Amino acid sequence: MIRKDEIIHVKTLTEGAMLRNPALADRMLEELGHARTVKSNPAPKNVVSIGNTVTYRDEATGQTNTVTLVYPEHADILRNRISIMTPVGVALFGLSVGAASYCDTRSDQRRLLTVIDVVPPSENESDNPL
Question: Which residue has the higher pLDDT, 128 or 108?
């Protein structure tokens, strides 16, 4: 599920990525094509959307990670803020708790990522990740 207000921004980012990283852009377009659009703002609390903190498991390694999904201009790996336009970001975007999607790594490995938990941004968060 993807909020309608996010789709336009994500499509614009994807078009810009076509020259720099066509495989990633194609993957995002594939995911957008499968996504169900929701009007609600915010999206349902159990769905990964921009600004949410997501805990996911790499099924190949069993390792869990917690990241906040953001637009590229707000990405900061030191603060665990990953861009939607990364392989992990593309894989997680729009998934609900319990759902899984694959991620192709830079070393050409395919990993299955399963969403364990989704936490929406706090209403009183002073450092907005968006």
Answer: 108
CB atoms within 10 A of CB 49: 26
Helix (H) or strand (E) holding 108: none
Longest distance between any two alpha carbons in the chain, whole Å: 40
Q: What pTM was estimated for this model as a whole?
A: 0.72
Identify which of 93, 114, 90, 98 has the alpha carbon closest to the alpha carbon of residue 43.
93
Q: H helices within the chain, ranges in order?
A: 4-20, 22-34, 87-92
**Are the C-beta atoms of residues 35 and 80 closer than 8 Å to each other?**
no
The first and second tokens of residue 52, run together, are 């949410």
pLDDT (tens digit per residue) in 70-91? 998 999 999 999 998 889 998 9
* Structure tokens belonging to residue 71: 């637009």
Taking each helix axis from N to C end, the angle separating 4-20 and 22-34, rounded to the nearest 10 degrees, works out to: 160
Separation of alpha carbons 74 and 117, rounded Å: 22
Residue 97 near residue 120, CB atoms below 8 Å: no
